[in-house]
Every structure is written in C-alpha cells, then in structure tokens.
Design brief:
By secondary structure, this protein is α+β, with helices and mostly antiparallel strands. The chain contains 1 helix and 3 strands, in the order H-E-E-E.
C-alpha cells in the first residue's frame, strides 16, 4: 500500500486564495508526461495570470508522508 505524499506549495496557495476572497478563479491540473508529478494551478477569472500553484511527485514506492525526497518545488 502506498502512503501519502507531500504537496509542495499548498500552505502558500491556501493563504493566497484566502486573500483573493470572492474573486472568481479558474483551476487546471497538469500532469507530467511520465505521470511522476502533478500540479494544480489557480488562474484569474480571465485565465491570463497564475494566482497560485501547488503540486508534487507521485509516490512510486511505499514511503512515509514525511519523506524529504517527496518532490517538486512549490510554484509562487
């Protein structure tokens, strides 16, 4: 069984999204071609600017959620 993994940039993204308040946003998901990592991006309402981003590597083996080798760098 695979265990959880770290989501890089999530705390920063949540803070940014809270500050956005009621502003309409769009979301998109991006997967690496080899499916080893993923990202969720949050765009402004016209989809012309990235407001926030979070993502990380998908676990490939049984690993602890707090393993430091867990992945990608946060987007800001």
């Amino acid at each position: 069984m695979k265990r959880g993994h770290t989501i890089d940039g999530l705390a920063d993204s949540v803070d940014i999204l809270l500050r956005a308040g009621e502003e309409p946003l769009r979301t998109r998901s991006i997967d690496a071609v080899d499916r080893s990592s993923w990202f969720t991006i949050f765009l402004n309402s016209t989809a012309t600017a990235v407001v926030a981003c979070c993502g990380g590597r998908r676990p490939t083996t049984m690993e602890s959620a707090d393993t430091p080798e867990s992945g990608a760098q946060p987007c800001r």
